[in-house]
Design brief:
single chain; about 525 residues; alpha/beta; Rossmann fold; 6-stranded mixed β-sheet; 21 helices; 15 strands
Length: about 525
């Protein structure tokens, strides 16, 4: 926040004539501008199409227009020239008037910008979006108000606790750890959104403690839904439900606390993301869901197909808006499923069937990956390396590339146990060793479907599911790895030396009767 205020004050001191502050937090931005006006000993005026020009800080009850004619933006801009004192003029939501349907306003603002360059007055355009016409692009300096920091949210939380502290019907039970978790969950909310969700929590159950983290995530879920560009997933999976992939789980586990202030103080960078490449149905998407639960961060799914619009330029705007939503509720996990299909053909030469839209969307996404500073951890999954743009594989955009192969014997046994437990069956009552041997070449999804099929057979026959039911289902299934053997071998050949293995090296299946220690679930 200090950086933003310092930058804004620097532009004002440098006599930039027109400055655009893009934010949905109007009140917070006005407070900062008012502080700068006081510090620079400048008068402050505010304009809106409902009140016209009024002195800054005027309450809404007292905002009777001093000059009703200034509700017209042209008249208000003329009034800027008439005042000779050092002044900051805040024009709120002027962007609807900076369109082709209001050419006179555009021209007048450009003329005033040229006039104010050497004077002690500045115009600040304040609004939630910025649509500058080409005539003004060179005349306007643009700043984006960042979301509140942990310190801002901590100050707000202290104010709320102080307010409700004297009430007997409200209990506040926050130790240092619980407070840190609550503030971490609230990062990305505006101060108004955070105040609303804290108030809602207190009204709902009369207490405020670290168990209210999920309520904060629910508020973030509403933000995502309003955008219409991303999907918000609940934390329903965890690493205990992910069979195998021990090396990948270990790598992710080491980064579980990397978003904390302690990690920043230690000098750790925020993890950027990971690309999971491999055979279909082997747990790539499941890992994306599990890591958000393990890290206790919101999980957002970016559907690239939803980004592509019919209007020229709309696709690029959609991806920018989706990225902005993800950053606004950061820290978060952004899951980009089957990224190879989304950008298929975007790196090829020659004329593109989509007129280059895919390449432009890819460029916008890759630029953000390389330059993003918001704590958004990207989990991208892909099945076909031939469709992956080489720019995506460059270090610096993502932290690591993992190859997710078909599960080994030990992993198949673990996956079978996981799915039996999820269906309220005791794995000890099944010959998991025989099932794992029979299912060589099966993916995790195919193992799950075999158990489902066995359940249907047992239910139809009026008996309890047994090992024989599952064996029969496995023998009736032709695994995808056998159907697409060439594709799997090509994937393995490409990954050798180019990607890290997500699983421990395969070992020969043990003999029947050997004792096997089950792999502990994370």
């Amino acid at each position: 926040m200090a950086t933003f205020a310092t930058e804004l004050e620097l532009l004002i001191r440098a006599r930039y004539p027109v400055i655009a502050v893009v934010t949905g937090e109007e009140v917070r931005a006005l407070e900062l501008i008012s502080q700068i006006a006081d510090h620079r000993q400048k008068r402050l005026y505010e304009w809106s199409c409902s009140t016209g020009l009024v002195p800054g800080g005027t309450s809404i009850q007292a905002r009777k227009p001093l000059n009703p004619a200034t509700r017209d933006p042209l008249v208000a801009l003329d009034a800027v020239l008439e005042l000779v004192e050092p002044t900051l003029f805040v024009f709120k939501d002027l962007h609807p008037f900076l369109t082709r349907s209001h050419p006179t306003v555009i021209r007048r603002l450009r003329e005033i910008a040229l006039h104010l360059k050497n004077g002690p007055k500045s115009i600040i355009l304040l609004g939630p979006q910025l649509d500058l016409p080409p005539e003004l692009e060179k005349e306007v300096a643009v700043l984006h108000l960042p979301v509140p920091t942990t310190e801002d949210l901590a100050h707000l939380l202290d104010q709320i606790i102080e307010t409700v502290g004297a009430r007997r019907d409200v209990s506040v039970d926050l130790d240092a750890t619980g407070r840190a978790r609550l503030l971490q969950a609230a990062l990305g909310l505006t101060l108004n959104e955070a105040e609303n969700v804290f108030a809602k929590i207190i009204v709902q159950d009369g207490r405020l403690d670290d168990s209210d983290v999920n309520a904060v995530f629910a508020e973030k879920r509403q933000i995502v839904r309003r955008s219409g560009l991303l999907d918000y997933y609940h934390h329903q999976e965890h690493f205990g439900r992910v069979g195998g992939l021990d090396l990948l789980k270990e790598w992710l586990g080491k980064r579980a606390a990397a978003f904390s202030p302690e990690a920043r103080a230690f000098g750790l960078p925020v993890p950027r993301g990971v690309l999971l490449l491999g055979v279909q149905g082997c747990g790539k998407s499941l890992c994306a869901k599990a890591v958000s639960a393990h890290w206790q961060l919101p999980l957002l799914r970016l559907d690239m197909g939803r980004m592509f619009g019919s209007l020229v330029g709309s696709s690029e705007e959609n991806i920018r808006r989706a990225i902005a939503v993800a950053e606004s509720i950061a820290p978060a996990v952004l899951w980009v499923d089957e990224i190879d299909k989304a950008f298929a053909g975007s790196q090829g030469g020659g004329a593109s069937v989509d007129g280059g839209t895919g390449a432009r969307v890819l460029g916008t996404f890759l630029t953000w990956l390389a330059e993003k500073s918001a704590p958004v951890f990207v989990v991208a999954t892909a099945n076909d390396i031939s469709h992956l743009p080489p720019e995506l594989l460059r270090k610096g955009r993502l932290d690591e590339i993992f190859f997710v192969d078909l599960p080994s014997f030990i992993e198949r046994a673990e996956i079978l146990r996981v799915h039996l437990v999820r269906r309220s069956r005791n794995p000890e009552q099944f010959d998991v060793h025989a099932l794992a041997l029979e299912s060589e070449g099966f993916s995790g999804a195919e193992l799950e479907e075999a158990i489902n099929s066995a359940l249907f057979d047992a239910f139809h026959g009026g008996t309890e599911i047994t090992t024989d039911h599952v064996l029969a289902a496995l023998r009736e299934t032709v695994p995808l790895a056998r159907t697409m053997d060439e594709h799997v071998r090509r994937l393995r050949h490409w990954a050798e030396g180019r990607a890290r293995r997500a699983s421990l090296p395969d070992a020969p299946p043990p003999e029947v009767g050997e004792v096997h220690e089950p792999i502990a679930a994370d």
